[in-house]
Amino acid sequence: MIISNTESIPGRRIVEFYGVVTGNTVRAKHVGRDIMAGLKNIVGGELKGYTELLQDSRKEATDRMTEQAQSMGANAVVNVRFATSSISQGAAELFAYGTAVRVE
Amino acid sequence: MEGNIEQINLFLNFGLPFLILMIAYFFGSYIEKRHFRSIRKREAELLDFPVVSFDTMPDDWNVSRSDMVTGSIVISLDYFKRVIAGLRGLIGGRIKTYEPLLERARREALLRMSEEARTQGYDAIFNVRLETSRLANARRDGKGVAGVEMLAFGTAVKFASRFANSE
C-alpha cells in the first residue's frame, strides 16, 4: 500500500478511483502521563509522552484508512489529509482521509 | 509558634510561587537555548536534502519509489513565560514569548520528518504541509497542560537517477 499527500503517486499512473476512505481514533490522556506532563510544563520543552501518544494515534488512524482502501481493492491512497478535533477535556479525535485508487 | 505558622503561610503564598517562577525561568531559558542549538546543528547536516513545499514535483526528478512521511512534536511553554504571556494578554499586542516556542516546534517537526525520510533511504521530500493543533486540556486560566502539537508531513521520493530527464 502506497500513500501520498499529493494528487498522484510519483512515477505511477492512476487507473481506477474508488472514492474517499477514512480512518479515525479517539484517545484519552493517561493520568500518569499527565502528571509527568504537568511537571514538565513548569520548565517547558517537549512533552515526549504526548508526542508518542499522538504519533501512535495518527499511525492507527492511517492504518484503518489503508485497511478500508485495501478492502475496496485499492493499492494506493492519494491526497491524504490529517485532522484533529477535541471531543472533550482530555480526549481528542485524530482522523486521516484520502482517496483510494489503483495505480499501475 | 504562631510566628512560625505565619512565616510558613507567607512562604506558601508568596515565596513558593516566586521560587517556581525562578526555577521555570532558568530551566526554561536553558532548555530553549539548547533546543535551538540542536536544531541549527541538525539543519546544517540536512542542507543537501531537498525539502520543498511545491505540490507537483520538479520535472527533472525521476522517481523510483515514494511514500508519505511525517514528523511531529508536542511542546509546551515554561511557567514563567506563560505568566508573562498572561500579563501581555491584558494589554494586548505582540506576545514575544510564544513566538520562539512555535518556531522551534515547527523547525523540529520538519527536521524529524526529514530525518525519518533519510533513514528510510529517500532522497527528497515534496508537497510538505504543516499543521498546528492545541491540546484539548490546555485551559485558559494557565493551569492544566498547555501544549501545542506541530505536525509536518510530505511525500518522500527516491530518485531512480537524479536529473535523468534533463540530460
Number of E-state strands of chain A: 5
CATH topology of chain A: Translation Initiation Factor IF3
- Calculate the terminal CA-CA distance of chain A, rounded to whole Å: 12 Å
Shape of chain B: elongated
Our Rg estimate of chain A from Cα atoms comes to 17 Å
Description:
The complex is a heterodimer of chains A (104) and B (167). Chain A is built from two helices and five strands. With 104 residues, chain A is α+β, with helices and mostly antiparallel strands. Chain B has 167 residues and is α+β, with helices and mostly antiparallel strands. Chain B has a three-stranded antiparallel β-sheet with strand order 1-3-2. In chain B, helix 1 packs across helix 3. The longest helix of chain B is centred in the N-terminal third of the chain and has 44 residues. Chain B starts with a helix and ends in an 8-residue tail after the last strand. Strand 3 of chain A pairs antiparallel with strand 1 of chain B.
Write the layout of secondary structure elements.
The complex is a heterodimer of chains A (104) and B (167).
Chain A: E1 2-3, E2 14-28, H1 31-43, E3 45-46, H2 48-72, E4 76-88, E5 91-103
Parallel strand pairs in A: 1-4
Antiparallel strand pairs in A: 2-5, 4-5
Chain B: H1 2-45, E1 63-76, H2 79-91, H3 98-119, E2 124-134, E3 147-159
Helix pairs in contact in B: 1-3
Index terms:
heterodimer; A: 104 residues; alpha+beta; Translation Initiation Factor IF3; 4-stranded mixed sheet; 2 helices; 5 strands; 37% helix; B: 167 residues; 3-stranded antiparallel sheet; 3 helices
Summarize the entry for a quick read.
The complex is a heterodimer of chains A (104) and B (167). With 104 residues, chain A is α+β, with helices and mostly antiparallel strands. Helices cover 37% and strands 43% of the residues of chain A.
